[in-house]
Structure formats: structure tokens, C-alpha cells
Amino acid sequence: MCKSESDSKWVDLEIKLTYLDDLVQELNKIIYNQQKSIDGLEQKNKQLILRMEELEQSPKGADLPHEKPPHY
Fold first, then answer.
1. How deeply is 65 buried, as exposed, middle or buried, from its count of CB atoms within 10 A (0-12, 13-18, 19+)?
2. In whole numbers, what is the pLDDT of the chain averaged over residues?
3. What is the rounded CA–CA span in Å between residue 72 and residue 63?
């Protein structure tokens, strides 16, 4: 193997490493944004659970919104 072939292989490896590094950084951004979304959804879910528990413990119909029954 001559020196130019060896240099060429090193350059190819460096290029591939650069692309892989960029890919990892992009995937990290995606994961970070997904985690933010998951955290927001978990918070909303907790709020809904608390609200449902409050409604279950309140006197029947006390805090329920006034809506027409579905048959009207």
C-alpha cells in the first residue's frame, strides 16, 4: 500500500466521522425536543387526573359544566 492510498483512506475515515458526528448531534436535538414534548404531555396528564379526582370527590354535579344532554 502506498502513502497516497493510506492518506486517502484516512481522509475518507475523517469525512465519515464528520458525517456521523453531525448525525449524532441532529439526533440529540430530536431526542431533546421529543423529551420536552413528553414532559409537557405528562404534566397535562397529571393535571387532568387531578381534575378528575376533584370531580369524583365533589358532590354529584356540583362542578360539572352545564351542557345539554346529547339527545337535545
1. exposed
2. 88
3. 22
3-state per-residue secondary structure call for 15-31: HHHHHHHHHHHHHHHHH
Cα–Cα dist 70/72, whole Å: 6
The predicted-structure confidence for 31-49, as pLDDT tens digits, reads as follows: 999 999 999 999 999 999 9
Cβ contacts of 64 within 8 Å, gap of 6 or more? 55
Indicate if the alpha-carbon torsion angle 17, 23, 28, 29 is positive or negative. positive
Nine-digit cell string for 67 = 351542557
How many C-beta atoms surround the C-beta of residue 69 within 10 A? 5
| pLDDT of 61 over the 60 cut | no
- CA dist 26 and 34 (Å) reads 12
